[in-house]
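Box 3.1 — From sequence to structure: Aspartyl/glutamyl-tRNA(Asn/Gln) amidotransferase subunit B
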Amino acid sequence: MTIVDTRTPEAKRFIPGATGDWEVIIGLEVHAQVTSNSKLFSGASTSFGSAPNSNVSLVDAAMPGMLPVINEECVKQAVRTGLGLKAQINNRSVFDRKNYFYPDLPQGYQISQFKDPIVGEGKIMISVGPDRQGNFEDIEIGIERLHLEQDAGKSMHDQHPTMSYVDLNRSGVALMEIVSKPDIRSSDEAKAYITKLRSILRYLGTCDGNMDEGSMRADVNVSVRKPGGEFGTRCEIKNVNSIRFMGQAIEYEARRQIAILEDGGEIDQETRLFDPNKGETRSMRSKEDAHDYRYFPDPDLLPLEFDDAFVAELAKNLPELPDEKRERFVRDMGLTVYDASILVSEAAIADYFEKVAAGRDGKAAANWVINDLLGALNKSGKGIEDTPVSPDQLGGILDLIKEGVISGKIAKDLFEIVWNEGGDPAKIVEDRGMKQVTDTGAIEKAVDEVIAANPDQVEKARAKPNLAGWFVGQVMKATGGKANPQAVQALVKQKLGIEE
Ligand code: ADP
Ligand code: MG
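Predicted structure (token representation):
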């Protein structure tokens, strides 16, 4: 049995406890790997899946005397992202050393940004729902900051019985840390937030958003409070690498905290890890041994400065982002917000849709792309980039419907043929005799036959004209779906003596 949660997004924001409702407060720190060919401060490659330690320059290995040199492309990517998040761009920012010891951090410090990040406050609109009325609600989640920093290498403990190995390929790769305000109020909102953030990053081309490959991961801060009360003490769940796990981790963690508080206990501010096998979070380190990173400005690097023209140039070349696209689809193409949201979720889907819709009915195009194309892709586990039906082919099917050459029903069959075998839809219809029958003589014959065979239904339909639809269905069946439905409808009504 599946239990469907029918609570509204509003209601979902509260978790009932023994002492009444609790509110969950969530803030996310997302690490997004910058899309760039080379690392933040060196020329080594960032390609994923290379042989261990093959993408390591002397800078990344922290050889004595090596000096970091900022990669301009990474700076541009961070600014683009800031613009996409409608954020404050800081023309002057500072790189600091964040000192800590880790076997996969040969420098002994991470170059990051602390007091003066490259990007300040911004925002992301998320949409949650549907509620019982089918409505979606747009909620604004504040962005606190975005800063640039280096990634560390990777220790590998499972390669040798007595030794640990280290792979420094990731060492020095540019990351953007995007910190949200504690504005998120449920696991659904958190999932919507990270989904939207990933969509924006992908539209911008600043991060591939691939959580499986670790190019995007989140630290999830969770606390609970009585509605409207003071913020509670938070716990931070480190390195969550899937959207589903993030939802599970929040649900578990919020309930864990509520149970402690309702038992009269206190929450220790600590760092926790999510165990996907158990569906639980467990303590990793408490605040008592929290690090003192001894941040200070990196003496090897000058403050990062650029002028307004640099930002303006990047702003000018920014692509249309999902929110603006959604607005345009609703405004210019008459789509519902819901349909438009689905179509803009990925830039490639939106592009596909726009090609199909060009010069055609937007709503019809949206229906076919969402229900038929995305439905079929979903079922076969394919992404839009692997679609066997091109926009031209789908457009061709729509044209055949519009011109009355095929019925909507035959169009579904035609779609399946094109999906499986490819080919030009018009030619397939021609070759396989799928054209709609508009010849009234043939349709009339079929209508007469159905009427003659069902005298009872005829009686009923005369009394209750709605039942004419049943006859239309029978005639469509009898003609293998090829009769023109409008012609059938008209003939049925005429023969039954039902007024239009
Ligand atoms: P740090 O983790 O480095 O100490 P911050 O204190 O700025 O950094 O907070 C990091 C994240 O924790 C932010 O995303 C912020 O929104 C979130 N956060 C802050 N206070 C709370 C709270 N009481 N409950 C949940 N999240 C919180
Ligand atoms: Mg933190």
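Summary of the box: DSSP finds 16 helices and 16 strands in the chain.
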